[in-house]
């Protein structure tokens, strides 16, 4: 029983217990986080009620929830907006990623997701996406009331509709005085299109400098921002 007289031999036990407890706690937190990530996202009771109030499909909101934890904000129909919408505010890098991934999927489900604010009109700098229940991919132009003193909302809608038919133009975002567009089909002869764009929105030259530069840019980077 000699070892009872030498307790100093076992002084390492207490520090070892502390280390074990520390790493056990860290490992438990890791497992909890891993388990949380593995859980499929769900809509809250409030979000389900909101969806029912504006007759949005739960599955559509659930698809959005898989890509963002941002709050879903109901935007009711009013005198300026004929149909309700859901607004989602998110960061500069998140918004384009979500839009790129989900836009086509949502369109096939009868919904359109688009930029309603690029952070220019907000104090927090967040981008705003809005979700509308419509099968018209250009409806956000009417929803936003895009127009100028000299060009009506319907004229803008019809012009973009023409570009959609001939050049594969898709709507990315819409505001009161601006549009974001993208040409998804290869553009070969772009000089005539560039002139049409300049005639329609002369301010485009503030960004592109000249007709020739715009024509070249349309081939290399078929994204278009129009502002009146």
Automatic annotation (TrEMBL):
Annotated transmembrane regions: 20-38
Name of this protein: DUF4253 domain-containing protein
Pfam families in alphabetical order: DUF4253 (PF14062)
Organism: Costertonia aggregata
Lineage top rank: taxon: Bacteria
Record's keyword terms, sorted: Membrane, Transmembrane, Transmembrane helix
Domain DUF4253 intervals: 135-228
């Amino acid at each position: 029983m000699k070892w009872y007289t030498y307790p100093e031999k076992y002084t390492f036990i207490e520090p070892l217990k502390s280390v074990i407890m520390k790493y056990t706690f860290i490992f438990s937190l890791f497992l909890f986080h891993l388990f949380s990530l593995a859980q499929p996202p769900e809509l809250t009771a409030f979000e389900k009620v909101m969806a029912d109030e504006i007759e949005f499909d739960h599955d559509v909101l659930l698809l959005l929830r898989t890509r963002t934890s941002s709050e879903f904000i109901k935007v009711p129909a009013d005198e300026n907006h004929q149909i309700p919408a859901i607004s989602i505010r998110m960061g500069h890098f998140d918004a384009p990623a979500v839009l790129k991934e989900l836009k086509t999927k949502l369109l096939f489900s009868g919904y359109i997701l688009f930029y309603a604010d690029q952070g220019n009109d907000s104090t927090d700098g967040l981008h705003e996406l809005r979700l509308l229940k419509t099968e018209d991919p250009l409806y956000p132009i009417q929803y936003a009331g895009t127009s100028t003193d000299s060009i009506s909302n319907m004229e803008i809608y019809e012009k973009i509709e023409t570009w959609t038919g001939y050049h594969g133009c898709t709507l990315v975002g819409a505001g009161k005085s601006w549009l974001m567009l993208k040409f998804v089909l290869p553009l070969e002869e772009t000089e005539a299109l560039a002139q049409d764009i300049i005639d329609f929105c002369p301010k485009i030259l503030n960004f592109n400098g000249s007709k020739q530069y715009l024509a070249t840019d349309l081939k290399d980077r078929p994204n278009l921002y129009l502002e009146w």
